[in-house]
Predict the 3D structure of the following.
Amino acid sequence: MVKFSKELEAQLIPEWKDAFVNYWQLKKHVKKIKLSRKNRQHPPPHDLNHVDFGRSIFDSIRFIAMKLSTKLLSSTNNNTEIIQVRSKSMEDGSDEEEVLYQTELVQLFSEEDEVRVFFERLDEELNKVNQFYKTKESEFVERGEILNKQLQILVDLKQILSDRRRKPNSGIFPRSRSSSARNSDFSDEVIAALEKNGVSFMNSASSRAKTKKGKPKMAMRIDIPAATPAHTIKAVTSTLWEDLVNNPKREGPGDFINRKKIQCAEKMIRSAFVELYRGLGLLNTYSSLNMVAFTKILKKFDKVSNQQTSASYLKAVKRSHFISSDKVVRLMDEVESIFTKHFASNDRKKAMKFLRPQQTKDSHMVTFFVGLFTGCFVSLFSAYIILAHLSGIFSPNAETAYMETVYPVFSVFALLSLHLFLYGCNLLMWKNTRINYNFIFEFAPSTALKCRDAFLICTTFMTSVAGAMVIHLLLRAGGFSPAHVDMIPGILLLIFIALLICPFDIFYRPTRYCFLRIIRNIICSPFYKVLMVDFFMADQLTSQIPLLRHLESTACYFLAGSFKTHQYATCKNGMLYRQLAYVISFSPYYWRAMQCARRWFDEYDLNQLANMGKYVSAMVAAGARLTYATESNHLWFSVVLVTSVVATVYQLYWDFVRDWGLLNPNSKNPWLRDDLILKNKSIYYLSIALNVVLRVAWIESIMRFRINPVQTRLLDFFLASLEVIRRGHWNFYRLENEHLNNVGKFRAVKTVPLPFRETDSDG
């Protein structure tokens, strides 16, 4: 049977952990009472009053008498209350009164001091739980009222659009009229319909007229977030226009009402209702788990103290707000009915798929195939090493054809497989340490990738690549044409690209399409709104620049037809190839810098500009190292040294202080932070040292520890692998810090922006 403490640890909401009953601390107090009771019942043997004369025939009679007296005392104690739980009402500065509970001992206990401390601690926990529940409940109730108003405006707007569509010889906007006239007439119709509810749209004729009369009123506008390139360009041009003219337009782009905006508004309100329902469910779970925790700890106290105190205290717990209030349950029922009616076409089953998405159960077949493919990879890779040794392709005197043709493609697969493996390790660590990565990345729980799924993709990938490498060596040794044999890596690459964009629902389609969507958002920065998962993935790309360079050489090798002629100078010495090397080395840093610029534009946070400077410095250092590789002189050596040192110091500071939240001199954990998820502090110090060592791996590019082309290629691959390992190691602490920020703010539910925003009509 699982202990309740472990069950509570597994079921509690990670972001609200500090607001739960501190069951473990209360257990320690119960143990203190137990130890104190033992010491009183069994005095030390050197006590002179305690003399053991051996066993007696009256021992059994004494035992029965003690049992009878205990039962009689317990029956009398049941009739009289041992403790009294009093409630005090205190004004907390708001309209509602704060109720505090305080326990008084009516009867004396043999361990009176320990018992009093226990109940004082228990009262503190009850008051903490009660106050937190009341705060969250009021937040969700207020959010529900706002959503109801938003939904009512949406329903009215949809009704107007529907009525206009039904009119004969009239679409939503008649084509014969100008755009301004169409929007003006439609806005007047919207205002006329909504003014019944006391709502008007900003810059409308009626709102301006009422403002001129000296009665300013609240106006409403549709505020769609600039999450797509079209919305972003429109928002930027509108802002520039207002800045240039120094007078806001009377009819801004947010004031026109059309069907597309209403569809966006509907999606936003639907997402807000889903998050509200999720938050209410979490609060309901919070209430029930805390009730069970109070019941369990009081039963432990009764067992230790041989008193029946749990019943009287549990009466007070059940009367407290977090148990007696039914607002959460009623609001959940209301959200279900509203969502079913307005967003699921009165189909409750469809509505529940949105409100209560079912998580996929872990399949043992996934574990089986992970083990199977791991064994296959080990066998195939061992066979490849033996064949490579026998054929001598890695010897210093071997021909360069293999390293020039096959090495870049297989390096791409190897680095990608290593990154996938480390991501699987990250998922496993985040799961074991209760870091809510699905909430941080805003992944759907029903389709989110689990650690075993990541390992399955990784092992499948590695097994396919190892098999292709073995087949390639066998065909080369068999005397087949090199032009045909060297097509194998290209064919393998095309197969994986086709599988990535495959439209059929096979091999984790939601994950594949999510990956493609994130890559699109990164490449099109800063036109897409930047989410946590977007800049997290962009950071991964900054560690995969060697992989992108290998993709460049592979594409050049196959597109230029070098696999037929084996003329490698076509790609190596071409001006376009060398210029593309700069573009590819700059691109990940540029995308990440543009994301920082976009976040600064959205949030007006100057830290984002400082973060952008970090990526600009890394871009300059990367360009200097590329130039030094072709122009080796003292000037460029000095430039590389200075730019690389500046970029490295900048990156290390941001890693430790900003991304990981460490190096706090005032922390209770020296030079770390106050809250740590890992119990062993030395791991953090070792991680800091390891990150420093791996960050300065660029020293090899200026020291040039090379002997022959084969060893140069292998050394480059080794250094690229070290950077991928550093990034996988960085990922854990980055998400740990983000999770602790959410915990500090008790943020367990995503805040969805709402489309209809009130604003003063005179502004």
